[in-house]
Structure formats: structure tokens, C-alpha cells
UniProtKB/TrEMBL annotation:
GO terms for biological process: phosphorelay signal transduction system. Signal peptide: none annotated. It comes from the Bacteria. The modification 4-aspartylphosphate is found at residue 73. Gene3D superfamilies: 3.40.50.2300. This is KDP operon transcriptional regulatory protein KdpE. It comes from Aliiroseovarius pelagivivens. Residues 24-137 form the Response regulatory domain.
Amino acid sequence: MSDDLEAFMMTQPPTAERPLNGMTVLVVEDSRFASEAIRLLCLRSGARIRRADNLAAAHRHLRVYRPSVVIVDMGLPDGFGADLIKELSGDAIRVPVILGMSGDAGTCDAALDAGADGFLEKPVESLAQFQQTILAVLPQQEGPTSPRKLPNEVVLPDALALQDDLSHLAQIMRDGDDGATQDYVAQFLGGLALAAHDQGLAAAAKRLAAARLAGRSTGADMAHVTHLVAARLKERQQL
């Protein structure tokens, strides 16, 4: 969205076609691919989007402006999304809508217990689901006043964002192999695999996470993940 168009949209009231006109969405998400999906959904809904890829960046954003909606991934490189949700929900001047987001549906309760108004389960790609999740918890006076037909559009993020995420993951695995790194790799890869509809990556992420949880050796699982990520990168570079 160009700066001029974005500024124009921010002055427009919500409509049935663009029910999030005038709103700013801050998405706290370390995956570029997942963030790109949210960007496209915001664009089609009339909202401005800002992205923070970790908790520290989110706090920098929040010191500058107050978003209408904050969407927080539950697993971030520098901490837990639930901590930020709890902090935001306890603010004297509360953000109107706080949502948790994850590829692990089991984290929904943690998000709601921390004070989230709702939860988005990855992959987040349905325009209707995205809009309805926000509008269901938005103060009534801030949403569209006219009846609306639910859109059936599904967004498809840019493949270049997927390649960036795979490169990011490969670099993380080159830089370290301790337990915390493996936990992050399993979480990040699991969410990315869901967003990309990649069953092979999803299965590898689940095996790594299960090995970590059971306290088993993870050498073979990490080697398999490394091989798969390298293969996916090679495939993308040949397109």
C-alpha cells in the first residue's frame, strides 16, 4: 500500500467491503511469510499494518503509537507472546483488540488466559476468518454499521517471503545447536510448514518437538530438518 493510499484509507470510515478502514494492526511475528499473509489480509480489509519480529521491536512500536489491533505470535525469538499479551491487557489504556496467533492450537488457552480477546490459528489465509475474528471482539461502534456479506477470498503470500524464512532458519541452525535453539527451530518450522502447506516440513518439526519433549537425542531429527530446509531452498532457487 503506497503512503498516499494508506493515508487516504486511514481517513475513511469502516464499510461492508473494508470493515477495518481507519485501523492500524501491529503484528508481532518472526516469520516473514506469515506476516505477508496478514499484510494482504489487512490490505483487503482497509487496515494499515505494522510489523515487529520480536518482543523488543514490539515495545519500540508501542512507545510510538497505539494500534487498534495487536496480533501476537505465541512463540517469538526473545520470549513468549503470552507475556506481551498479559502486559497489553493490563494497560490502563487498553488496545481495543488483542489476538494470540500460533500454528499450535494448544496455545489458545494460554493466549486467552493472558488476556487475549481471541485467537488466530495458522495458517491465517481466509479473509472472512480474519475479519470475523477481529470484528467479533471489536467495540461495536468502531466496526461497519451496514450488513456485510462474508468474503470467500484466500490470500497467497509471496514465495520470496517463504524463501527468506527458510534462509533465516538455515542460518539459525548454522549458528547453534543447543536445546533452546532446537526448541525455536521446531516451533518456527512448524508454523512455517502450516502456512506453506508443506507436510514434509510439518512432520519433521513435530518429530523434533516430540524428541525434545521426551528428552531423547535429537541429532538425527536436526540433521533431517537441516536436509529438508536445504532442499526446499534449492528448489526455490531453481524456480
